[in-house]
């Protein structure tokens, strides 16, 4: 008996060790993505400030703007955190191989993913049982979009992991109290906000939970204390704010408003200025394997039926607030599910609850059922491939080919540039110019710096498409190339016209183009085409519906809690 208990105690550690090894072995499989080069150099700049202050303490205030200006529109926690991993990589491997340093940087995000998976396992085991805990732990890597972002030096995977870590810590603090728990939850809350603003529903959902489950003044005080600690930690982490606190904080809170018109949501074959309410709900189903989607729906139903449990209500309320915010049409939602990625760790817990309930209902061996659950999810994941995790769609929508036919966005983060780089290395003449779309110059330049793109090839922008501080030309040079990313959410009429031309090279998955290469002459023929697709606007009723559905859920949860309380107060007949 003791031996069996020891084995059960060691199994989670063994599982998460294997999961860690899988992450380490696959962290370099995804191509360089949008913003990763900027974040990497920002991390170096931010951490260099501490060294500068150590050497010249009197210059600490004046030097803030110089070291913290780069990518200051995005908060710094992940850039500092991942920079420490890159620094550790430099100590172990040296600084010659930039690819190894980039992989070490990405491991900062993967470490947060592992911590979130462990926290979900422990939470589900405590609240819903052993089978649900294992179902949740298995589901984390079976959601390719979540697992894909976990291996990127991007803010989104880190924000999703920190949302869950902060939410679970905050629930513990609200239920049990204690200054240490409240402070710890506050620090995680501050770290989440200092990673990406997409976590803003977290304190709102926590407040709604306190009101629904009538936790009283003590819980409100604890929540306020956690939020105060989080705000202080957020501000302490970001020296950029110190020099001009109010204007710069407001800039951070509102800078994304303009993206509502600049970057659209491509969904069901149409462009949307703001996502309709059903887009994030559909994402839970189409971005996950069919078996995970089914388990998630079943788990959500089971949580609702057992919502007299505050833990079940906590998961449902956070899920509802995240979906309502993303589907309100009031916030920019573009580039696939990354703007509401924190939904997916919660969805993993729902899937774990669903799988655990099914094991008990069917009265089958839970390990066998969970093994079958994972096995059913793997074929589509393996067909898509580790390098295309961000392009994955579930079997329910027909994987990538079916999703493309239904009008979902094909690809969005430039990670598919790598096959185009290999083509250019083979075919481009010496000294040729390689033009790229707006925002992706650092990606192509990084391929050259790490040695994957030939040193003699020249990445550049075209002035009519993007003029920034990088290399650019007014018109395409002779013998040049244009790397085209089929990211429908940023399409202009010029890119739509270019897409209709026959490319020099196409990299496809299941017949769906993930990157194309055109000649400079071809792109030059389309540069004079103005305008962009007219977006469809969701209107105010969309936000009212999303908010109304969330309010209805809160009222139902409140009613169920009251019914349960009345049952407990009834005195049984003797």
Model description:
- This protein is of the alpha/beta class and 574 residues long.
- The chain has two domains: 1-384, no CATH class; 417-525, no CATH class.
- 62% of the residues lie in helices and 6% in strands.
- It is built from 25 helices and nine strands.
- A six-stranded mixed sheet has the order 5-4-3-6-8-7, with helices on both faces.
- A hairpin with a 2-residue loop joins strand 1 and strand 2.
- Helix 2 crosses helix 4.
- The longest helix is centred in the N-terminal third of the chain and has 31 residues, at 98-128.
- It starts with a helix and ends in a 5-residue tail after the last helix.
- The mean pLDDT is 92.
- One of its GO terms (cellular component) is plasma membrane.
- The chain crosses the membrane at residues 12-32, 77-95, 107-125, 131-150, 157-174, 186-212, 219-241, 277-301, 313-334, 340-359, 366-386.
- It comes from Rubrobacter taiwanensis.
Write the layout of secondary structure elements.
Blueprint (H helix, E strand, L loop, with lengths): L1 H25 L9 H20 L8 H5 L8 H17 L4 H31 L1 H13 L1 H7 L4 H22 L2 H15 L7 H12 L3 H22 L1 H4 L2 H10 L4 H4 L2 E3 L2 E4 L4 H9 L3 H16 L4 H17 L16 H20 L3 H19 L14 H8 L10 H11 L5 E3 L5 H9 L8 E5 L9 E2 L7 E4 L8 H7 L5 E5 L2 E8 H5 L11 E2 L2 H30 L5
Parallel strand pairs: 2-9, 3-4, 3-6, 4-5
Antiparallel strand pairs: 1-2, 6-8, 7-8
Helix pairs in contact: 1-5, 2-4, 4-5, 5-6, 5-8, 5-18, 6-18, 6-19, 7-8, 8-9, 8-11, 9-11, 10-11, 10-17, 16-18, 17-18, 17-25, 18-19
């Amino acid at each position: 008996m003791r031996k069996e208990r020891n084995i059960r105690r060691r199994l989670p550690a063994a599982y998460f060790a294997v999961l860690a090894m899988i992450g380490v072995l696959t962290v370099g499989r995804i191509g360089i993505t949008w913003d990763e080069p900027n974040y990497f150099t920002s991390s170096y700049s931010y951490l260099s400030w501490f060294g500068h202050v150590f050497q010249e303490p009197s210059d600490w205030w004046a030097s803030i703007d110089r070291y913290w200006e780069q990518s200051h529109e995005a908060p710094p926690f992940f850039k500092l955190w991942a920079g420490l991993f890159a620094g550790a990589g430099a100590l172990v491997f040296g600084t010659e191989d930039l690819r190894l340093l980039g992989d070490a940087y990405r491991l900062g995000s993967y470490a947060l993913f592992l911590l979130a998976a462990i926290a979900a396992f422990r939470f589900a085991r405590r609240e819903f049982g052993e089978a649900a805990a294992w179902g949740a732990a298995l589901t984390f890597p079976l959601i390719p979009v979540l697992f894909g972002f976990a291996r990127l030096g991007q803010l989104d995977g880190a924000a999703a992991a920190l949302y869950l870590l902060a939410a679970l810590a905050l629930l513990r603090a609200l239920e049990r109290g204690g200054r240490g728990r409240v402070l710890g939850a506050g620090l995680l809350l501050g770290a989440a906000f200092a990673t990406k603003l997409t976590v803003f529903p977290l304190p709102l959902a926590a407040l709604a939970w306190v009101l629904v489950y009538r936790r009283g003044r003590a819980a409100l005080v604890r929540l306020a204390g956690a939020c105060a600690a989080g705000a202080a930690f957020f501000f302490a982490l970001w020296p950029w704010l110190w020099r001009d606190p109010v204007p710069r904080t407001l800039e951070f809170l509102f800078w994304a408003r303009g993206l509502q018109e600049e970057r659209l949501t491509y969904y069901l074959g149409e462009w949307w200025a703001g996502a309709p309410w059903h887009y994030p709900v559909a994402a839970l189903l189409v971005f996950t394997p069919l078996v995970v989607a089914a388990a998630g729906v079943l788990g959500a139903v089971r949580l609702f039926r057992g919502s007299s449990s505050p833990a079940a209500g906590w998961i449902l309320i956070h899920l509802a607030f995240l979906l309502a915010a993303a589907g309100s049409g009031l916030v920019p939602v573009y580039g696939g599910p990354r703007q509401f990625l924190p939904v997916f760790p919660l969805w993993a817990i729902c899937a774990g609850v669903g799988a655990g309930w099914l094991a008990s209902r069917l009265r089958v061996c839970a390990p066998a059922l969970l093994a079958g659950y994972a096995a059913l999810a793997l074929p589509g994941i393996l067909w898509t491939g580790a390098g295309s995790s961000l392009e994955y769609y579930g079997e329910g929508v027909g994987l990538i080919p079916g999703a493309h036919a239904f009008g979902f966005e094909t690809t969005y983060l430039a990670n598919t540039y790598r096959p185009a780089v290999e083509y250019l290395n083979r075919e481009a003449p010496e000294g040729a110019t390689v033009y790229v779309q707006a925002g992706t110059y650092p990606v192509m330049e990084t391929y050259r710096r790490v040695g994957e793109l030939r040193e003699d090839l020249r990445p550049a922008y075209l002035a009519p498409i993007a003029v920034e501080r990088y290399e650019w030309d007014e018109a395409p040079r002779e013998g040049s190339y244009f790397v085209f990313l089929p990211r429908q959410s940023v399409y202009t009429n010029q890119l739509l016209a270019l897409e209709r031309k026959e490319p020099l090279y196409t990299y496809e998955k299941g017949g769906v183009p993930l990157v194309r290469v055109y000649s400079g002459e071809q792109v030059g023929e389309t540069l004079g085409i103005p305008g962009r697709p007219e977006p469809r606007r969701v209107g105010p009723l969309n936000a009212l519906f999303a908010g109304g559905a969330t309010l209805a859920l809160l009222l139902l949860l409140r009613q169920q809690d009251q019914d349960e309380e009345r049952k407990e107060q009834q005195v049984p007949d003797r």
